[in-house]
Amino acid sequence: MIDELYQEIILDHSKRPRNTGRLENATAAAEGFNPLCGDRLTLELRIEDDRIEEAKFAGSGCAISTASASLMTEVLKGRTKQEAEKLFERFHELLTSDAADSSGLGKLAVFSGVREFPARVKCATLAWHTLKAALENSREKVSTE
Amino acid sequence: MTNAVKSFDAAEIRKDFPILRQLVHGHPLAYLDNAASAQKPRAVIDAISRFYSSDYSNIHRGVHALSERSTRLYEQGRVQVQRFLGAADAHEIVFTRGTTEGINLVAQTWGRRNIGAGDEILITALEHHSNIVPWQMLCEERGARLRVAPVNDRGEVEKFEFTERTKLLAMAHISNVLGTILPVREVAAAAHARGITVLVDGAQAAPHMKVDVRELDCDFYVFSSHKLYGPTGVGVLYGKSALLEAMPPYQGGGDMIRTVTFEKTTYNTPPYKFEAGTPDIAGVVGLAAAIDYVNEIGIDNIGGYEHELLGYATRELEKIDGLRIIGTARRKAAVISFVLEGIHPHDAGTILDRYGVAVRTGHHCAQPLMDWFGIPATTRASFAFYNTREDVDALVRAIHKAKEMFA
Lengths: 145, 407
Ligand SMILES: Cc1ncc(COP(=O)(O)O)c(C=O)c1O
Prior knowledge:
The complex is a heterodimer. By secondary structure, chain A is an alpha+beta fold.
């Protein structure tokens, strides 16, 4: 079961996260904080014509939250804001509902193992909550609490 | 090893704790989260069940047999706590909901009366949030200032700087994160020489070392039953008689009054003045049973055995590559916080759990202390006298598994 949580892709993205650092000419950004474990991240987006062209993140966190942020920045590219929000909904369902299906979620499906670890759902969703705040174009800090 | 420690049979003692006899994820449970809350011996569980089955009623109210029995058991509990702490008088023992409520009670009664604009309250850098936030709130309300005695790299507090304006020193007896044992007696004496009142947060000390409030000469001492192998929902505030008498009441209601008319109420004497409403009667009965149990084993035997276990665990953990222990005080209780290179504590905690090892990960309600050490969180193994070397070995094995996974 522990192997289902820490799948290869998750371990890989936690050790070598993609799209890290700051984004020049970002058009939207937000900061996320999980007070329970001290994870924090800054997410920056470049949105053009309603489409997310680029996403980068910086911060420190556990393997689950780092891998989630890394994979999120990959899958977001080229999506409209609406598509991104829809994706978050489906992703959240994947983490919390036994009935969820992972079709169309692509690589994000590797997070289905989190379902068995309710205490870790917040780690997996921190980046996505931060995304939501960025899309609402608030520079305010979000918190998973 | 002293004889007392040698003859200490943790394997026998474990049999008194039914919860320890289980597998977690297929592995024998190694419960190493005692600083968060301790497990309950059969004697405590049975005392509560017996009380509800045959003696329970409300207290201080009825003339009937059950009420008299319940009142007697509740007040006997107070006497037991008095003896446990070495207090001069049972009326110096106030029952609360826990450490947190005890500190808030003092802040809102003694604090509001005695802390004024420009005054200072001194705490230490290793306090639990419950010994920070109530004082911050009080300072904000009164226009007073909160000052912090720093910790050194080992996690010891060496310098307590009092000023002309310091009115209160509020300090932990033992750090819940680092295990540091603070020199309460010496610091309290220095504080008293300047007329400063001293409150000690004994949440982590009462379960693991002999506490004598008259020898420490503190003014207030607080702890929680649930960390002392007793039930949740009840705690203790010790206060010197003269201080308790001079303090205004905390909450208004039944039991805390002497006479009530719509024009004026006169208050009961301590401790009843601070115990408005129906208290956690069964909780006190359970706490009394826990104290009996601890006394039977002997708090010094407990401390001696745990110290021995701390030594073993420290040596074993230090052998692990990439593991750094946070908190290396020279006087230390059986708490080990650590960080692992390349593994976030949250991941370590999840993996350890899968091997039956229960630890706490996170900031342990001490965010300022984490900031000081420059880390977001730690993994913490905290021991009790029912833990064994096998538990330590299980911890070490599980850490190696985590390292393999993240290698
Ligand atoms: C040092 C210290 N102080 C205070 C507390 C708060 O105790 P409680 O939650 O029982 O009120 C704790 C418990 O975590 C503690 O370890």
